[in-house]
Amino acid sequence: MLKRHLLLASVLAGTFAITACSQQTEENTEAAVESAGDDAAANADAAAAEAEAAAQDAGTEVAEGADTAGAAATDALENTGDAIAESTNTAVENTAEAVADGANAVANGANDVAVDAEQQY
Fold first, then answer.
1. How many helices (H) does the chain have, and how many strands (E)?
2. Cα(58)–Cα(56) distance, integer angstroms
3. pLDDT in tens, 40-71
4. Phi/psi class of residue 8: alpha, beta or left (left: φ > 0; alpha: ψ in -120 to 50)?
5. What span, in angstroms and rounded, lies between the C-alpha atoms of 115 and 103?
6. Which stretches in the chain have pLDDT values below 70?
7. At CA 67, angle to CA 66 and CA 72, rounded to 5?
8. Distance CA 77, CA 29 (A)
């Protein structure tokens, strides 16, 4: 009978030990899961902050690029305007010169006709 009691006590002690170990393992697992959840949340927050910062940087770079492009377009328009004005001035000068040459030619022709008329009479 004593052996049975010892055996029963041993089985009960083993059951209690396993139960206690299981309880400790469960608590450790819960703590590990909670810690992993906290880490994941912290990492998600950090990633969101980095993504927001990257988006802001990208927005700033786009705005700076637009400013640069706008300045370049303004310069190009100014240069185009200057080129058009210069070409127009050159065309007007050339036209005036051609008109003057034509007027001189007409005047010379008229003089030649007048000289011929005088010589005939």
1. 1, 0
2. 5
3. 777 777 777 887 887 787 777 877 777 787 78
4. alpha
5. 18
6. 1-29, 32-33, 36-37, 121
7. 95
8. 70
